[in-house]
Design a protein that fits this description.
A hairpin with a 6-residue loop joins strand 3 (261-262) and strand 4. The chain is mostly helical. The relative contact order is 0.13. The chain is built from 21 helices and six strands. Strands 1-2 form a two-stranded antiparallel sheet. A two-stranded antiparallel sheet has the order 3-4. The model has no long low-confidence stretch (mean pLDDT 93).
Length: 501
């Protein structure tokens, strides 16, 4: 072969890859430019598919949360829960959380929200929508915070028709992270150690999650509307004035004599922890070392030359290679085995606490049945209140042990200790009424536990199924007529519940 031919071939071999690389770089730059362009999205647009037109990778990864479709009945797994929550909605129905895709669906389907027939019926207030939909900040913006938090859950049935999505966490023009629920800002400022105005971008990667994954209660707030009508709003409030520990929040509630419900058996004024994920996270090694929720739950991924944050929000254990092993050593198998061993210890203490507290409720009920006075019962009832609150605080966030194992075990240990103190006090009362040998009824199954507390389960199910086939379907139809419903948010949705439907 002539020398000139060889040179030509070599030039081609060198130039072709370079040209392909140049084309690839140009395409990646064009795509990145498109991603960084200012989108045309309405303020607080609740339909995530509209955002997905500009951010398809993030949107597609968010839609992957639909894969967490299975229902896990926690009352079936731990029947003591039904006894502990007697007289409260969670004794009716309580399932393990599914992905964000199902947030609105599960809120509508649970027996806890009842079976309203109009805008003024049903057991729950409007506040129960708060962390289920981007329609919530939209409605607050359109009306007012106090108006939104006034009335029954059914009031906004046809206005809240999209699950948690883009507008909950992002500014529509800049895409910067955005806290859309002001009660978080107020709580941070009241607590004092982390004022909202000082929040960095890394802080925001946690705070957008904290606006929902935190402990709260519905604070009755009197107000007057524009027509001069006196109303009471049930405003979502974070009880952080004294701090965010289990004991600090317990003190906050005790100082205000706040009661979520009175226990049906023990007549104890009870507290229900919601999901204090943020509070436990900031006490653990991850929070103290500057990590954010997004670092572990929304890892960065690459496609070609594009880097973006995965919105398939779920357990970091589902993608250990891209989450945990960025910092921790060892193999995926070794890491999973370590986590499983630690979780076994937490589960062991949690089950002990549940047994102790459930029996304390039943023993208190027996003492009351025998004629024990309020004065005799109050010391034990206060212990029951505190024991159950601390147990609930420890486990209600589901990921609390992963966030802060030492704190979780400490608070669980405290729950067992205080629960046993309640039972010792109750034994003294029972002995006074000749019932020192009283044995609490057995509750080895969900059905038996619900029977012990007198729950009309079949009636509740029948009413709920009527709601699902009527009012629920009507709400989505009306939402579509209003132009706020995103049908893509329910593509492939199957009705799954822990009760017959």
């Amino acid at each position: 072969m002539k020398k000139s031919s060889i040179v030509t071939v070599l030039c081609v071999l060198v130039l072709v890859p370079m040209l392909l690389l140049a084309v690839s770089i140009k395409e990646n730059k064009a795509e990145q430019k498109a991603i960084n362009a200012v989108p045309e999205i309405k303020k607080l647009e609740p339909r995530s598919a509209e955002w997905g037109k500009y951010y398809p990778r993030q949107y597609d990864s968010y839609m992957e949360t639909k894969k967490s479709a299975d229902i896990k009945d926690m009352l079936e797994e731990n029947p003591a829960l039904a006894v502990m929550w007697a007289g409260y909605g969670f004794s009716k129905d309580y399932n393990a959380p599914r992905g964000h895709y199902y947030m609105l669906e599960d809120n509508m389907n649970t027996l806890r929200t009842g079976a309203p027939v109009d805008q003024n019926s049903g057991p729950m207030p409007t506040a129960c929508w708060t962390c289920k939909s981007p329609d919530v900040p939209r409605l607050i913006d359109e009306t007012s915070e106090l108006e939104f938090f006034t009335g029954k859950w059914s009031k906004y049935g046809s206005d809240i028709v999209n699950p948690i999505g883009c507008a909950d966490c992002h500014d529509n023009q800049t895409m910067k992270l955005n806290v859309t629920r002001d009660f978080l800002k107020r709580a941070l400022d009241a607590e004092g150690s982390r004022p909202f105005a000082d929040a960095s971008h890394q802080d925001m990667r946690t705070l957008v999650c904290a606006q929902c994954h935190a402990e709260y209660y519905f604070k009755p707030t009197e107000w007057t509307d524009e027509n001069g009508e006196q109303k009471t709003a049930k405003v979502v409030t974070f009880p952080w004035d004294n701090g965010t520990s289990a004991e600090a929040i317990e003190k906050y509630y005790d100082e205000r004599n706040f009661v979520d419900w009175t226990h049906k058996l023990s007549k104890t004024p009870m507290l229900k922890a919601q999901h204090p994920g943020y509070e436990t996270f900031i006490t653990g090694v991850h929070g103290k070392n500057g990590l954010s929720c997004a670092d572990c739950h929304m890892p960065y991924v690459r496609e070609g030359g594009v880097k973006y944050s995965s919105h398939k929000i779920g357990s970091p254990l589902d993608d250990i290679e891209n989450t945990c092993l960025n910092c921790h050593g060892g193999t995926e198998k070794e890491f999973k085995a370590t986590v499983e061993r630690k979780l076994e210890r937490k589960d062991e203490l949690s089950k002990k606490a549940m047994q102790v507290i459930a029996k304390a409720h039943q023993e208190a009920a027996k003492a009351l049945e025998l004629g024990a006075s309020d004065e005799e019962m109050q010391p034990a009832q206060l212990d029951i209140r505190h024991a159950q609150w601390r147990w609930d605080y420890s486990i209600a966030a589901h990921g609390s042990f992963f966030h802060a194992p030492e704190e979780t075990l400490r608070v669980l240990g405290s729950a067992i200790e205080v629960g046993q103190e309640a039972r010792l006090k109750l034994r003294t009362v029972l002995a006074k009424y000749s019932a020192a040998d009283y044995q609490a009824p057995e509750f080895s199954s969900k059905e038996k536990a619900q029977a012990v507390i007198g729950l009309p389960f079949e009636k509740l199910v029948a009413e709920k199924n009527q709601f699902l086939k009527g009012k629920k379907e009507e709400w989505f139809r009306k939402g579509a007529e209003k132009g706020i419903y995103d049908p893509k948010s329910r593509e492939g949705m199957e009705l799954k519940t822990s009760y017959p439907n």
